[in-house]
Amino acid sequence: MREQGVSSEMEWDGLDEACHHAVALSATGDAIGCGRISPEGYIGRIAVLSEWRGKRVGSSLLELLLDYARSQHYAQVELGAQIQAVPFYLRFNFAEVGEIFMDANIPHIKMQLRLKNC
């Protein structure tokens, strides 16, 4: 929130209780990243501490959330990607949908991924 200048009023949306969460911990047990998925299959709040970026923490979090979605037999998942994160999500075969929109004064685009359920 501090890094991107997002106020607590904009960040805390009251949906956490209904969501499934993933938390990445360091070897010493410190939280270094997080993410969530809603019961409707909306992935969000993926965040990784700056010193841990580029070390597969974000990828691991997203893989965990996608595994959860598959275990719940979701047909697809969606997210609102910050524009600079689009290449990250493209590596997981997400597709851009629609136009760029602003969320918390940051440009985003909706992305979707169809899931192959077992």
Automatic annotation (TrEMBL):
Using the record's annotation, list all stretches that form the N-acetyltransferase domain.
Answer: 1-116
**Pfam family membership, one:** Acetyltransf_10
Stored InterPro entries: Acyl_CoA_acyltransferase (IPR016181), GNAT_dom (IPR000182)
**Name of the molecule in the record:** GNAT family N-acetyltransferase
What SUPFAM superfamilies does the entry give?
Answer: Acyl-CoA N-acyltransferases (Nat)
Which top-level group of life is the source organism from? Bacteria
